[in-house]
Amino acid sequence: MAALRATGLHKNFGDHELLDGLDLEIEPGETVVLRGPNGAGKSTLLGCLAGVVVPDRGRVLIDGHDLLADPLPARRALRYLPQEVEVPPGVSGQELLRLWADVFGAPSIDTAAAATGLGDALPRLATTYSVGMRRLLAFGSVMLGDAKLLVLDEPFAGVDDEGRARMRKALVARRDTGSAIVLATHGHDVEALDELSPRQLRLGGPLTVDDDAGADDSRP
Amino acid sequence: MAQSLADRWRPRLGDFEQWLVVAVAGLVAAAALAGAADDLALARGLVFVGGPLLWLCGMAPRLAGYLHDPARARLVPLPLPPRVHWRAAAAAHHVGALTTTLLGAVAIAGGTAIHFGPLQVAGLVGDWLWLSLAVVLVEPWAPAAAAWLGRRFAEDSAARRTQVSLSGGWTLPEASAHLYVPPLCLGVATAIAMPGQLWLDGTIDGRSWPTGLLVAALAGPIAAVLLRPLPCHLYGRGVFEAVPWLSQATRTLAGPPIPSPLPGWIERLRRPDVRLFAMQLWRTTPVPGLRLWTLWIVAAWVGLAAGPTLPRVTVVVALAVAWLVPTVRVWTRLAPGRRAALREPVGGRAQPPAAIAVVLVPVAVAAALVGFGYGSG
Question: What is the pTM for the complete model shown?
Answer without folding.
Answer: 0.81
